[in-house]
Design a protein that fits this description.
Elements (H helix, E strand, L loop, with lengths): L2 H9 L4 E4 L2 E4 L5 H4 L5 H9 L4 E3 L9 E3 L6 E3 L9 E3 L6 E3 L7 E2 L10 E5 L6 E2 L10 E5 L20 E3 L6 E2 L12 E3 L5 E2 L12 E3 L19 E11 L3 E6 L5 E5 L9 E7 L2 E6 L2 E6 L7 E5 L10 E4 L2 E5 L2 H16 L3 H14 L2 H6 L2 E9 L6 E10 L7 H4 L3 E9 L9 H21 L2 H27 L1 H9 L6 H11 L3
Parallel strand pairs: 2-3, 3-5, 4-6, 5-7, 8-10, 9-11, 11-12, 12-14, 13-15, 14-16
Antiparallel strand pairs: 1-2, 16-22, 17-18, 17-20, 18-19, 20-23, 21-22, 24-25, 26-27, 27-28
Length: 508
Amino acid sequence: MKTNLKTILNTGSYKYCYENGKFTFYDNRIGDITKGNYNSSLFSAIRQEHIVILDLSMCPNVPDVISGFPYVTEIIMPTLTDNIPSIANCPKLEKVTFDPSTIKILKEKSFDGWPPIKQISFGEDFGYTLSFCISPNAQIDSLDFSLCKHMHLTDHAFQRSRIKSISLPDHITNLPEYVFCDCPNLASILAIGVIKIHFKALRNCNSLEHLKFAEEFYADNFDRYFDERNYDTSRCGIEIGNDDKYSYIWCLTNFKFYYTERLSDEWSNRIFSFNHINQRSFCISFGNIDIYSNYKDHYASNISEGFLKTSSRYTKITHNGIYVGSEDLQKNAIKYYYEVDKRLKTDIRDVIKQIEEEVDKLDINSIIDSYETTISEWTKTKIGDDDTFYSETHRCSYYSDAYLETILPSYHSEYKDSGYTTNWPWTSKKEIDEMHLEDSRIREMAKKSYSKEAHITYLIKEYIQYIANKSAEVEQYLHIGRAKEVFEQYAYLHGKERVSELNRVIII
């Protein structure tokens, strides 16, 4: 152990043990090693240590987050009851050891950031699930609640999770609303007590193969539980590769791979729509329901001109969990995709030459002299309504670009006020004179600091930075680069076999 870490731990009288890369922490001050604002020196020092196993099994408290352990390959959890920590920034983590029989509650986004888990079997004391209790990022194959004697299942419980199979206790007689909605990997449900399915409980569960419900389960018009939109699903995608027989499509609305008969070269680099026909049939006998579907074939049909149905993942922007607005982030990304592609195909030497020519044409003295502040103020009177005062302030020159903004910053503001009074905040002559003096000062400084060479260099750098920024934005919302990277790793497979393997391994 490094001297600095040992000194901090001993000075603070922390309860710990460190031996052969295994760090055991059993102090009630768990926040000091998991939260940087609790004990920043300890937080930093412990992450510099080559800790391979982080053992919290004897810790009396459970942390909210375990983050930033660069060398840790295994985490041993304390007793988990109603708090399951999320894990982040542990790039070498391979294993988490814990006792699932002690867990009593699954809160929202449980197991977020954990490494892949084959199965979690809960004990008889497990109580209930909250909505969206399994993180959509959690890689869990199977959940077993069959031993739970008092389990309560809530609406939306497992919605958007990636689980592949689940077993429910016998006393669960109903599948609540949306409980498995949008679970794309769910293949099997064992719930021998279920006699009723509620609204959209199985919506978009297109991988389901086998269900085991109560023998009394009445399966009239069973396909209605799956939402008929799944039968003819319109997608939006782009061809990312081909072989002698097939073209391979990366879907931009659900981030899956599809294949189709090889497209002509005219479709290269184009966004297009396609249909994926899902044919489904059922075999029902005494609560056993076998589902046969071609959904996993991922064969695309009816290729046509492009459109974009925005993915729900990218329709709203949040800040610290608070909704602050929305915009078509994917549509913007597609616009930038074409723009960036066009720029990358342009020889940078031609761009530099064009920038030099444009800067040479500019009458800089005239541009600087035109820089000024203008104020427009007026009142509007409407019969039967309040009088309204308007004010607009503009500060700019007749021409500007990214470099000129650094020496001639533009400004614009609008103000509106209304009421019965005429005591409006008109700009005084003194304020106007001060603005004009400020304009004069800025013009004088601009003439002294302007450099044609700096102007050209700045615009070239700005052009390159724009490509970099927009490329990052395209990748953030379309994941085309990631899709191409994974696609190239399976060149030895073709058609259905290739997309099946690609969709199995791709993680977005």
